[in-house]
Amino acid sequence: MPQPVMAAIRALRAAGLVVSVLWSLTTFGTAAPARAQPEPSPSAAPAFSLKVSPTRLVITPSQAGDPQHFQVANTGRAGVDVDVTTRSLEQHPDGSLSYPPAAPYSAAHWVGMTPQHFHLAPGAARTVTVRLTMPAQPEPGEHAVALVSLVPAEQQHGPVRLNRGVAVPLLVTVPGPVNDTVTLADLHTQGFSPGGPITLTAVVKDSGTVHHDFFAPDHNLLAHAEGHAIAFPDFTVLRGSTRTVTTQWADPPLACICHITVAITREGLPPHALQATVVRFPVYPAGGLIAALATLYLMWRFMASRFTLQRRPQRPPA
Question: Which pTM value belongs to this model?
Fold first, then answer.
């Protein structure tokens, strides 16, 4: 076989190898196979650990005169003395709670509990009874209080001492009309996506007089995009609070101008909806393919020029 033809075949084989390597890097470079991780061995129980059950109490207007109960369990290795008390509570946008001395819509002075002081040996549990006494003319709507099971700092040794405990939120609805209204304050995502999952963030504001639960399967918050329903995780927004919740659209199209809508249904009113738009284009795979085609073209031009030079007749010597 003539030498120029053999050289062209070798060049095409090399170009094919370059294309396959570039394509594998751009397409599969981020999809390394996951290795099975060994399950962690169960660790010993910590020295201090308290658990409460249930993790939330809700008193409806019809239950205002009924005693409520929650249980405190010592799941640690050391015995503890527990003080049970009440605190006002506030909800932050990430869902965490803080316990300031005073807060709007607080029911901290409405609650009595028995027992208020008790000892828990390791593995022991104690039931606490909660009784509610409303003021003469309470403000309509829902009020909140944290039932705190606290181990005081004086039971600890060492230079640093901290109060340790766990809290049960108690939500009390005053008899009378209620307004269960929540709205979307914001919906945002990245304006451009080169690939991978798309992150959605919604800001939900409770503008009514009671809390609102967004729980699956029937009442969770959903985003709708290109015929897909994307669920947000379960969350609760308390009266007067604003929550920021995030989810991911795991399998969006390879390329699209994607319109994403989130709507909250409201009884007797049209849904409150917001929309966000994401331009999605596979930059990295497209760039790899363009680079591979450019490499092929340059190699073809190079081999064609060499082949032309080899076939050009030599000039006779002068």
Answer: 0.72
